[in-house]
Structure formats: C-alpha cells, structure tokens
Write a structure and sequence with these properties.
Helix content: 55-70%
Structural class: mainly alpha
Mean pLDDT: 81
Order of helices and strands: HHHHHHHHHHHEHHE
Largest sheet: 2 strands, antiparallel
Number of helices: 13
Shape: globular
Radius of gyration: 19 Å
Number of strands: 2
Strand order of the largest sheet: 1-2
C-alpha cells in the first residue's frame, strides 16, 4: 500500500500547519511522486480530513491516553487506521492494522496495534453507535463555529450540515492550459452527453488527452 506513505506525509503536514492550502499540498505531492495512484490518494486524504471529528471520537473511545497527549504522528496514523477499518471495504482488517503499525515508531507499536485490533473486533458495534450520535459537530465532523452559524442563519441546519458532509460522487480535473474552469462549467452545461461518456470510463483506466474531450480528464471516482 505505497499510497499510504504520501497520505501520511500530507496529513502530518496539514496537522502541523493547518493554515496550509491542502489542494496545493496534495497537488505538489502527487506531482513529485508520479507513480502514485492519485485518485485513491486524493480521496483518502480528503475523506480522512472530512471525517476527522468522527475518527477522533473513535480513538478517544479506545485509548487510555487523552487524544491531545498522543504523539502527533501517532494521531495521524490512528486516524488513517480507524478510517481504513470503518470506511474502506477494499482493505482487509489485518492488512490495515499491519500497514499502520508498521509505520509507527517501535516504542508506540504496542499501543497502536492494541487500539486498532480492539476496534477491528468491535467494528460493527462501533459503526452502529456512530449512527446514533446526535451531536452535529461529531455526526457531521463540522466545526462548532460553523454549526453555531448555521443554526443562526438556516431554517434547516440539519439538511445543510448533511449536504456539507457529503462526499462528491466523482471529481473532474481540467487541463487549464486547454480549458478554463468557466469554459468547463459551460461546456458540461451545454453538452451533458460528454459528461455521460466520462462516467462510462473505468476508474482504473488512465485516459490520454487524445481520448478526452477538450482537455477534460476524470480525476477521481467512487461507485
């Protein structure tokens, strides 16, 4: 799982420097390591950050060490491990645990291993319990400030929070040397059939510019 290394690198940097532009950080990492499976890496980075409140809630449940006292690198690794165990059907539990433990410091491996294996044994109950959480800050992994503001200005804050926490079905990347973002929006509005052609591409196939309309490339898919 070589894609976990850049994910760990990006998430660690973003944790230490939350003012960083995540999109630029991600693009820089993918550009400098061209062999990486960028759609998978991109989705994993964004989804772990999107679910951070939930992931931290699970870590707190299984850790005897307070979250803020856990080594920062281990916090990132545990978030990755919890995400893989709860939300990634593509990774077997034992493989997820081994990959995360193998990336932790030797002095921390016992702690990381025990926490993730306990979670793996209780996975179904944990997922059920998470569905019953009513606190919107945790349920939707949204900052308390944003929840408070939505409660103030929105007639239906719950619906807004659910929308904000919804992962896009797919992403598109445009080659801006060929097609501007504004032209891309207009193009997809005027020619919806070409969007359907894009959706027909298999997510593991890497199309060339010759295969794609007007510089448009599929960026990341989830089915």
């Amino acid at each position: 799982m070589n894609f976990l290394d850049p994910v760990f690198q990006i998430l660690t940097h973003f944790q230490d420097h939350p003012e960083s532009n995540l999109k630029l950080l991600l693009n820089h990492t993918l550009k400098t390591q061209k062999s990486l499976p960028s759609p998978k890496t991109t989705l994993l980075v964004y989804d772990i950050i999107r679910r951070q409140q939930i992931l931290d809630t699970v870590i707190k449940r299984f850790s005897r060490i307070r979250l803020e006292k856990i080594d920062p690198r281990n916090r990132v690794l545990l978030r990755m491990g919890v995400y893989l165990l709860l939300y990634s059907d593509a990774t077997p539990d034992h493989a997820a645990v081994n990959e995360i433990v193998g990336r932790s410091a030797r002095s921390s491996r016992g702690f990381v291993n025990a926490l993730l294996r306990n979670l793996a044994r209780q996975r179904h109950q944990v997922l059920k319990d998470l569905q019953e959480i009513r606190d919107p800050k945790i349920r939707y992994s949204i900052s308390p400030l944003l929840v408070s503001e939505l409660n103030r200005i929105s007639a239906n804050p719950e619906e807004n929070l659910q929308y904000l926490n919804t992962k896009p079905v797919f992403h598109l990347r445009a080659n801006t040397r060929v097609l501007s973002v504004s032209r891309l929006r207009q193009h997809l509005t005027d020619r919806p059939r070409e969007l359907l052609c894009i959706l027909d591409w298999h997510p593991t196939k890497r199309p060339t510019r010759r295969d794609t309309p007007h510089g448009l490339l599929p960026f990341a898919f989830e089915h």
